[in-house]
Amino acid sequence: MSELVLNLENVSKTYMLGKRSVPALSNLNLKVKKGEFAAIMGPSGSGKTTLLNVIGCIDKPTKGKVLLDNVDVAGLHESQLYKIRRNKIGFIFQSFNLLPYLNARENVELPMAAAGKSKAERSARAKELLGMVGLSGREGHRPQRLSAGEQQRVAIARALANNPAIILADEPTGNLDSENKQGIIKLLANLNLTQGTTIIMVTHDSQAARNTERMLLLKDGKIVKEMQGLHANKKNQTCPHCGASIQINDDTCPVCKKSIYASDELFSS
Fold first, then answer.
1. Which of 21, 92, 215, 256 has a 20 to 30 Å separation from 151 between CA atoms?
2. Is-contact 186 230, C-beta < 8 A?
């Protein structure tokens, strides 16, 4: 059985608006294994952002356990949470959040500087990561000289800097055109396959979601439905229709000729 990197047990989160309590998460349970690539979808107000904040140690649950690498982070002090965010979690944002006065390499080095890595270690690791995301030769460019897709690649490299246990991606394709969106999703999928990186992605984009391994539908603060995504078939290299062997880059089965992709209406009843 695969090792759990994340385990949420009966997690609830309630906000107070004046004297009125507003539930955002309601007795939610979620287990994520090491090396999984999962997508969380749901309508506005379903609790996606709150869930990501709780997993990312940005917000604390009102009740329940949040076990990250078998440590319950729900009751930890902020000084301890800071270290967990720095060392255990990598964040990817819709708006990239790169510092405009730093070049690509320097942006990637930032989390490592906070972790106390030497200048030589930071530089070598940043160069390695930028090469991994397809930006060799662009290390010295500042964000304004990079395309939106390239900026998001820098952000992904930065998220990987400290070898985190988990990557949290908040609408990582939301500000990208269709070509760059496809490139970023393929990059994340490839990192999951080749590096074993655990990724949880919040998205409104059904195309992005179906390229993950596991799709979860959030509604009224609970996970109400789960489906398998294309990435699971690619990991197993097996056609979901006829069981024939497929290659990682196949979009259709070479034997039955059927599409390996899930349908557009992921969570239709």
1. 215
2. no
